[in-house]
Design a protein that fits this description.
Blueprint (H helix, E strand, L loop, with lengths): L13 H5 L20 E2 L2 E2 L8 H8 L11 H8 L13 H22 L9 H15 L8 H4 L6 H14 L4 H13 L5 H17 L5 H4 L11 H11 L3 H20 L1 H6 L8 H6 L4 H7 L17 H4 L9 H23 L39 H7 L6 H34 L13 H6 L7 H18 L10 H25 L6 H11 L4 H31 L3 H35 L10 H15 L1 H4 L8 H11 L1 H10 L5 H4 L2 H7 L11 H18 L1 H29 L32
Antiparallel strand pairs: 1-2
C-alpha cells in the first residue's frame, strides 16, 4: 500500500492527482541515471536527472494526506524507501578506515557502559552521525588519480550502512569477556589473554553461523520488521536521499541533536535529581525505607521507581518509546504495573526470608542468612566444584526476595515465549523452512525490499557451515586450556544445538515485536543437571546455549538493516566479522583496565553512582546457585523450587489468550496481550535504576498512538528521525562526560553537592533514604 496524496496539479496532469502517487525512488519515477545519494534540485550527486515534476512536488509537499500506519506492510512501504543503485561501491577505503575507527570507539564505550549502574548500551545512531560527518568530509578530497582509492566518489548510503554495521557489531558487549571477568573476580582464574580473545571470537561466530538457515524466516519477509532498525534506516535515508523534504528532515534532526547534546549535561552531571524526580521522595525527606523501596529510583539498586519521572534521555531510551510497536509497549506497561505489586508484596511478606534475614530490598548478589555477602569460595574446592561438607558447614546462599520473583517471572517468560512462537508464528516458521534452499534465494517471498536484494549474490550456506565448524573446533579446544576444564567438548556442541532452537523462538519474537526475552533460565536448569556442582560449567553452558544465539539475533538484525539499505549480503557479512574481531580485542583490554582499577566497588552489592558490577554479580549468582547448588536449591521441596517450576507454568499461559483470539478475532484485546512480554516485565525492576519507565510510557503513548493515529504525516516523516536524533546526541555527550568527569580516563570530577545533587552518603540522587 502506498500513501495517497491530494495535490493541486495542472489540468493536463489531473490523472496524476487521482492516482496513487509513488514515492520518489519507485521504479515508475524515471531518471536518466540510476538512483544515487544526495539528490537535490540539481540532480543526483550533481549529475543531471529527469524526475517527474508532479512526483517531486508531492514528495516535497507539506499539504498531503497520509494514511495511518498500522502494520509491518505499511511501514515497509511508506517509511522505508525501496530505491537502490547496484553500482554504488561498499567495501571502500572509507569503509575500512571509518569502520575500524568507529568500531574501536564503540567497543571501548560498550565495555565502559557494562560496568555502569545505568545499564546503558551503545546506540548505533551516534556512530552513524559521526560516520556521516567524516564520510562527507572524506568525499570532499580529490577523486582523480591515486586519490580515487581514498575517495571513490560521493559518500553513499550503502557504504555508510556498512560502516554502521561494522562499528555497531564491535559495540555489542561480548558475554565471553564478561565470563572471563567473573573467573578473575570470583574464582581467581586469570585466563590467558590470547585464549580469552580467541574464545570470544569463537563463541560469537557460533551464533553467526546459525544465521544462514534463518534468513528465509527472519530477514526476507515483511513481517520480520526488526523495529529497532527503523530509526537507523530513517536517518540514513534522510541523510542520503535529497529533495526539499529531506532537507527539512535533516534540519529537524540537527536541531534536536544539538538540543539534547546540551541538555544531557544537566541531568547526568549537574542536576542528577532530574534522572529520577519523585514527588513522594521529596516529601518524605529521606525518612522511610518503604518510600525508598517503592518510589526511589535514582541510584543503583535503590527502589522500584513508582511515579518517578526521569528527564534523562540516556535512561528513557531504554523503554524504546519511539519505535517499539504500541502492542509491545502496552504489554510491557501491564507487566510493570504487576511488578510494583509483586515485588513490594514479596519483600514485605518475607518471601524466601529476604526481609527477616536483613537482605537489601534490591540486589542480584548472594547473601548469607545474616545479610552479609556470601563468600562462594567457602563452599568450592580447589577445582571450583561444590564441596558438600564445606557447604553444610557454611550454609546455603540467599537471594533477595525481589530477585527471587524476578527469576521466577523471567522463567515464566521463557516458557511462554516457546508456546507463543508456536501458536502465533507456526505458519511463518513452516514457510521459512520451505524456502530454505542451499545457495538459492526464496522465490515465494513478496517483500519490496527483498525484491531489490535479489540482484545481489548471497553468502552461500556452505560458508556459514565452515564458520560453524571452525568456531566450534576452537571453542572445544579452548574449553580444556590450562586445566580449567570449563566445559566438556561434547557439552559445547550440545548447548550450541539447544541454543539454535531458542534462537528461532526469541528471533521471531524480536523480529515482529522488537522485544527480546531471555531463555537463559532454561539453559541453566538443563546445565544444572548435566553438570551438577560446577558453577563455571554452568556459566559456559549459558555462553553457548544462550549468549551465542544472542549473536545470531544481532547478526540477523544487521542483515535486515542491510536489506533495508540494499547493502550486498556479502558486504554485510564482511562488516560483521570485521567488527567482531576488533571488538573482542578492545573489550578485553578495557575489562582488564576497569576491573583492576575498581575491583572493590564492582564486588559491592550496591555499587556507586559511577561504577557498579550488577551485571557480573547477577551472572555469577545464578552460576553458583544453578551450577554448584542446583539440586540443593531448585528441586521439589527445596528453597527455590518455584523458580524452575515457572517454566512449565509459562508454557500454558499464552494458550487462553490465543484461544480467545481465535474465538473472537475482531476483539483486538486478545492479540494485544503478548504473554512473554507481560511476564518478563513483571520481574523487570529489581536492579539497576528505574527512573525512566513512567516518562517512557507517556512518550510511547504519544508517539505510537496519538501521533501515529492523529498526526500520521508527522509520524511518517519525523517520528523515527526524532528517536535517532535523541539517541545520537545523548550517546556522544555521554561518551565525552565519561572521560571528562566520570572517571573513564582515571580521574573523577564530582559536581559540587547542592539540593539537586545531594551528598550520596546522606541521600540518594532523588533525595530518598540511602540504602543501608
Amino acid at each position: 500500500m502506498s500513501i495517497r496524496h491530494r495535490v493541486n496539479v495542472p489540468a493536463e496532469d489531473e490523472n496524476i492527482a487521482l492516482a496513487t502517487v509513488p514515492k520518489l525512488g519507485d521504479e515508475s519515477v524515471s531518471t536518466d541515471n540510476k538512483y544515487d545519494d544526495n539528490i537535490d534540485d540539481k540532480g543526483i550527486d550533481g549529475h543531471d536527472v529527469t524526475v517527474s515534476h508532479a512526483v517531486k512536488e508531492v514528495s516535497d509537499s507539506e499539504d498531503v494526506e497520509a494514511i495511518v500506519i498500522e502494520g509491518a506492510d505499511e511501514i515497509a512501504a511508506e517509511i522505508v524507501d525501496t530505491r537502490d543503485d547496484p553500482s554504488q561501491p561498499v567495501l571502500t577505503f572509507r569503509f575500512w578506515f571509518l569502520g575500524a575507527g568507529l568500531a574501536a570507539f564503540g567497543a571501548v564505550l560498550a565495555e565502559i557502559y557494562y560496568w555502569k549502574p545505568q545499564g546503558a548500551t551503545v546506540s548505533a545512531l551516534f556512530q552513524l552521525v559521526i560516520a556521516y560527518v567524516l564520510g562527507r568530509a572524506m568525499a570532499m578530497l580529490p577523486s582523480h588519480g591515486w586519490w580515487r582509492f581514498i575517495n571513490p566518489g560521493p559518500f553513499n548510503i550503502k557504504e555508510h550502512t556498512a560502516i554502521v554495521i561494522f562499528s555497531s557489531t564491535a559495540s555489542t558487549t561480548a558475554e565471553a569477556v564478561s565470563i572471563v571477568a567473573i573467573l578473575k573476580m570470583y574464582y581467581n582464574l586469570d585466563l590467558n589473554p590470547g585464549i580469552a580473545i580467541i574464545q570470544t571470537w569463537a563463541t560469537q561466530c557460533i551464533g553467526y553461523s546459525i544465521c544462514g538457515v534463518l534468513q528465509s524466516s527472519l530477514i526476507y519477509p515483511t513481517y520480520a520488521l526488526w523495529p529497532a532498525n527503523l530509526p537507523t534506516i530513517s536517518l540514513l535515508q534522510s541523510m542520503h536521499y535529497g529533495g526539499m523534504l529531506n532537507k527539512k528532515r535533516m534540519r529537524f534532526f540537527w536541531i534536536v541533536f544539538a538540543a539534547i547534546f546540551c541538555w544531557e549535561i544537566i541531568p547526568t552531571w549537574m542536576f542528577p535529581l532530574l534522572t529520577a524526580f519523585s514527588v513522594v521522595c521529596l516529601a518524605d525527606h529521606g525518612r522511610h525505607d518503604f518510600v525508598r523501596n517503592l518510589f526511589g529510583a535514582g541510584s543503583s539498586n535503590e527502589g522500584l521507581g513508582l511515579f518517578s519521572f526521569g528527564f534523562d534521555w540516556l535512561l528513557i531510551t531504554q523503554a524504546y518509546p519511539l519505535y517499539w510497536p504500541l502492542q509491545t509497549q502496552i504489554s510491557s506497561w501491564i507487566g510493570m504495573l504487576v511488578c510494583y505489586i509483586l515485588m513490594t508484596g514479596a519483600y514485605y511478606s518475607d518471601v524466601g526470608q529476604g526481609k527477616s534475614n536483613g537482605l537489601p530490598f534490591m540486589s542480584t548478589s548472594l547473601f548469607t542468612s545474616n545479610g552479609s555477602s556470601y563468600d562462594q569460595t567457602m563452599i568450592l574446592d580447589s577445582n571450583n566444584r561444590l564441596n558438600q561438607t564445606a557447604y553444610e558447614e557454611y550454609g546455603r546462599p540467599f537471594y533477595t526476595s525481589t530477585y527471587q520473583m524476578s527469576l521466577t517471572t523471567h522463567n515464566l517468560s521463557c516458557g511462554a515465549a516457546v508456546t507463543h512462537m508456536i501458536l502465533w508464528h507456526y505458519k511463518d516458521i513452516i514457510a521459512g523452512w520451505a524456502g530454505l534452499r542451499l545457495g538459492y534465494k526464496n522465490d515465494n517471498i513478496d517483500d519490496p525490499h527483498y525484491e531489490k536484494m535479489r540482484a545481489y549474490k548471497v553468502v552461500p550456506h556452505w560458508a556459514y557451515g565452515l564458520v560453524f565448524i571452525a568456531s566450534m573446533s576452537i571453542s572445544m579446544g579452548t574449553a580444556y586450556y590450562g586445566g580449567t576444564n570449563t566445559i566438556p567438548a561434547w557439552s559445547v556442541l550440545l548447548f550450541s544445538v539447544i541454543g539454535y532452537f531458542f534462537a528461532v523462538v526469541i528471533g521471531f519474537l524480536q523480529a515482529t515485536t522488537g522485544f527480546q526475552t531471555s531463555v537463559n533460565g532454561i539453559i541453566q536448569i538443563i546445565a544444572a543437571f548435566i553438570h551438577p556442582g560446577k558453577p563455571i560449567a554452568n556459566m559456559y553452558a549459558s555462553l553457548y546455549g544462550y549468549y551465542a544465539p544472542m549473536q545470531t539475533l544481532y547478526m540477523l538484525s544487521d542483515q535486515k538493516l542491510g536489506q533495508y539499505a540494499k547493502v550486498p549480503p556479502i558486504a554485510t557479512f564482511i562488516a560483521q566479522f570485521a567488527g567482531t574481531i576488533l571488538g573482542a580485542v578492545l573489550q578485553y583490554v578495557l575489562y582488564k583496565s576497569i576491573v583492576d582499577a575498581h575491583l572493590e566497588v564492582l564486588l559491592d552489592p550496591l555499587g556507586t553512582r559511577v561504577w557498579a558490577g550488577w551485571n557480573v554479580q547477577g551472572t555469577n549468582s545464578k552460576a553458583v546457585t544453578f551450577g554448584a547448588l542446583g539440586k540443593e536449591l531448585y528441586l521439589s521441596g527445596k528453597p527455590y523450587w518455584f523458580i524452575p517450576a515457572a517454566l512449565g507454568i509459562g508454557l500454558v499461559l499464552p494458550i487462553p489468550f490465543w484461544l480467545m483470539h481465535r474465538r473472537f478475532p475482531k476483539q483486538r484485546f486478545w492479540s494485544y496481550i503478548n504473554v512473554p512480554i507481560v511476564t518478563n516485565y513483571m520481574g523487570w525492576l529489581p536492579y539497576s535504576v528505574n527512573g525512566m519507565w513512567w516518562p517512557g510510557a507517556v512518550i510511547g503513548f504519544i508517539s505510537q498512538y496519538w501521533a501515529r493515529k492523529y498526526r500520521p504525516r508527522w509520524f511518517i516523516k519525523y517520528n523515527y528521525l526524532l528517536s535517532a536524533a535523541l539517541d545520537g546526541g545523548t550517546q556522544i555527550i555521554y561518551f565525552i562526560l565519561n572521560f571528562a568527569v566520570f572517571g573513564a580516563s582515571g580521574n573523577t570530577v564530582d559536581f559540587p553537592y547542592w539540593w539537586g545533587n545531594p551528598d550520596p552518603s546522606l541521600l540518594s540522587v532523588d533525595r530518598c533514604k540511602v540504602p543501608e
